[in-house]
Amino acid sequence: MKPPPFDYVRPGTAAEAVALLAADEDARPLAGGQSLLPMMNFRLARPSTLVDIGRLPELTELHRDGDVLVIGAAARQRAVETSPLVAQTCPLLPAVLRHVGHHQIRARGTIGGSLAHADPAAELCAAASALDAEVVAASPTAQRTVDTAALLLAPYQTTLHPDEIITETRWPILPRARHGFAEISHRSGDFALAGTAAVVEFDGAEVARARLAGLGIAGTVRRLPDAEQVLLNRALTAESITEAAEAAAASVDPPEDVHADPATRRAALRAATRRALEQMRHD
Amino acid sequence: MTDTLTAVREISLTVNGREVRRAVPARRLLVDFLRDDLMLTGTHAGCEHGICGACTILIDGEPARSCITLAVQADGCEVTTVEGVTPDDGLSPMQRAFKDCHGLQCGFCTPGFLVTLAAAEPDDHPTDADIRELLGGNLCRCTGYQHIVDSVRQAWGRS
């Protein structure tokens, strides 16, 4: 399996990249290529031109901006997974990244690429959803900030315009929050049947704020508001976790596909939600 | 297969310590560039969609899938293949361990395992479970994994 013919350009700046994308509606940005190239090998994607943004220095920055962790769109997943700054400011990210493909994939795959690919089972999309992360999208004429909920539209579809690229991703730093992540997959490293990213903030012993995002259970990664509601204004206990896991499972209507039927995915979400919450329990 | 419709780009990179400068079609996968243009046939093309790990090589020291990387993306990079982790004469300690412990049968997947392992620090993978996690991105269809884990343990001096 080989990709069909295409042209390839490696611009020197993000501005050049979006100008190239604007000039050719069949051109596509190439970051790590860990999703796009398999799709091209299968001939599921046939871009006319690949605009390689994977090594633009301005897109690979990683720094703290007040109470936000800023990660360039083309920062490699493995670099983020192993970054001391990320571990310190946004511990959910390394916890989630360990489940993204295998480390050979993460060495090439990028943070922005995963969000822009919008796989319904993408762990990074779940982390972004649970943390209310934002992306900065640039076109030749404008720059805008898009929150995760507004970014993810449908399987493999975002609200990005064809001449836009994600330039940076912005992750809120929540020093007092606890986090958890779990997913259920047939084999380690496979796409998960379902998974849950959880971010919980406490007021004393009680849950003041809970944000749960489920993956693999709908057309996009989505929040689980029923489960979040169950957790509020009470301690995080075995009982509240069970109720939240039940609420999560009852609130979704997963699609049927060759990998699992809806009941299996619902059960997987129940288990993943329970495990993610157990990780942060403090009785 | 014709490349006449595709753009050609000049790339220069280091492969196993040797400077290489070639004109390649943009669509040329790195695995095919290594095998067909440079005749480095130790890197194997298995699934060709990033699942099996037979095509694993190092790009700037990090293991990566050469079947879902374009040759043009390796421009300016340092690439290491299984040939590059093999001594000029004889076998590396890891290769000898694979031989001793029956860590290979047909051998198709072996280059990918060896390259993944070449980039690993033993101290980062202290337990058998860690070794299995490390090798999770490499599939073997005949030997199974126990003998491969045994090979790694021998090469890393664990009884």
UniProtKB/TrEMBL annotation, chain A:
Domain FAD-binding PCMH-type intervals: 1-176
PROSITE patterns with a match to the protein in the record: FAD_PCMH
Domain of life: Bacteria
InterPro entries found in the cross-reference section: CO_DH_flav_C (IPR005107), CO_DH_flav_C_dom_sf (IPR036683), Diverse_Substr_Oxidored (IPR051312), FAD-bd_PCMH (IPR016166), FAD-bd_PCMH-like_sf (IPR036318), FAD-bd_PCMH_sub1 (IPR016167), FAD-bd_PCMH_sub2 (IPR016169), Mopterin_DH_FAD-bd (IPR002346)
Keyword field: FAD, Flavoprotein, Oxidoreductase
Keyword flag Hydrolase: no
SMART domains according to UniProt: CO_deh_flav_C
SUPFAM superfamilies named among the record's database cross-references: CO dehydrogenase flavoprotein C-terminal domain-like, FAD-binding/transporter-associated domain-like
Pfam families to which the protein is assigned, alphabetical: CO_deh_flav_C (PF03450), FAD_binding_5 (PF00941)
Name the record gives this protein: FAD binding domain-containing protein
TrEMBL record, chain B:
PROSITE patterns: 2FE2S_FER_1, 2FE2S_FER_2
UniProt keyword Metal-binding, yes or no: yes
Record flagged with keyword Metal-binding: yes
Domain of life: Bacteria
InterPro entries: 2Fe-2S-bd, 2Fe-2S-bd_dom_sf, 2Fe-2S_ferredoxin-like_sf, 2Fe-2S_ferredoxin-type, 2Fe2S_fd_BS, Beta-grasp_dom_sf, Diverse_Oxidoreductases
Protein name from the UniProt record: (2Fe-2S)-binding protein
Domain 2Fe-2S ferredoxin-type: 9-85
Taxonomic source organism: Saccharopolyspora mangrovi
Keywords: 2Fe-2S, Iron, Iron-sulfur, Metal-binding, Oxidoreductase
Pfam families xref list: Fer2, Fer2_2
Lineage of producing organism: Bacteria, Bacillati, Actinomycetota, Actinomycetes, Pseudonocardiales
